[in-house]
Amino acid sequence: MIAVKINTKQFMKDVNNIIDYSVGFVExxxxxRNAFLHQLGPQIKAMVEEFIxxxxxxxPETLHHVYEWYRTGSPDARLYDISYTVSNLGLSFGSSFKxxxxxxxxxxxxFYDKARIMELGSTVIIKxxxxxVLKFEIDGEEIFTKxxxxxxxxxxxxxxxxxxxxxLFFKQYFKxxxxxxxxxxxxxxxxxxYKKNLSIxxxxxxxxxxKTGYRWVVNAAAATR
Length: 225
Hints:
By secondary structure, the protein is an alpha+beta fold.
């Protein structure tokens, strides 16, 4: 007769510790999520800005309205702001427009709300302010009029172009290119750290799992650099 003696007490302790380690790993992942997103936010913000600038330099006629006059595609001439927030829903991005400080050739004042008005394709009505006569140029010819001038398409054919490029980044580039090229997909699909620290988890239980899961998700941001 062959008899095998098993230390069931130690076995069950190891099993319970591994279960607790797994539960802790998930909790640590959740706890590190916000820290990870706060690290990732500025990186993606910079990528969005460069993506828009690059598109503007390639086709300035489509995005000139979201930059100061004659400086389309220049990072320090942007008339848009990219912002992000971290919440229970994840990482969210938004955008707003800034006031132009530059003056178009032939004008004396900055175009108020330039970026927003041109992006929306809003009609602009120009009236004399300090004079009874309005003076402006069309194709080099000076025009004088006492009547208000209606500009139905300021900026040319640029309506919604900024929104389209903004959406293009998140709907196509971010999903199809960034997640793969940055290494994030591979990182999250290959949680080797869980397995490597399993022996520690067998001894340390839940606390070891929380620490491992937290570090793992927080360190994910490094995969994009």
